[in-house]
Fold this sequence. Notes:
The protein is an alpha/beta fold. The chain has five helices and nine strands. The chain has helices at 3-8, 27-30, 33-47, 62-73, 128-141; strands spanning 11-14, 22-25, 54-58, 76-80, 90-97, 100-107, 116-124, 145-153, 168-174. The model has no long low-confidence stretch (mean pLDDT 95).
Amino acid sequence: MSVEKLKSSLRTVPDFPIKGILFWDVTTLFKDADCLRELIDDLYEIYKDKGITKVVGLESRGFVVGPALAVRLGAGFVMARKPGKLPADTYSESYQKEYGTDTIEIHKDAIGPDDVVLVHDDLLATGGTVGAATRLVRKYFQPKDVMINFIIEIDELEGRKALPQDVEVTSVIHV
């Protein structure tokens, strides 16, 4: 299987969640066992020798691939969630999205200073959500290293410009 096969398995939904947004839907990739396996295998090959100890998955589609990748890497999985969804004490970071403002939270005991963290989300558009999650991880937890990964990157939106320049960023599919 190839990246083109993975890309062809995606669905686009116009005007979702609001008019003017073209939504790249990864659920069609997730429902195909061969595509999902290929995606996890590809990500594992990228990160297997990087010493990852924690994968931070962003709500909510980062919760699908993040845990599977963490298991393959022998790492723990950490949820980055919207406010009020995590039961214990959290750190939080607010950010601007394409269509509003939001906040992301992580449990205060989720990451340690000896961890090597991979922040994972399904899509890089403008970089707001993952930028906030990365700032949160670096500011409050100060791990050894942080890397960022996406399934899809919308190149024309130049979301990488909103991310720290000293962090390794990879995307499996570019559109």
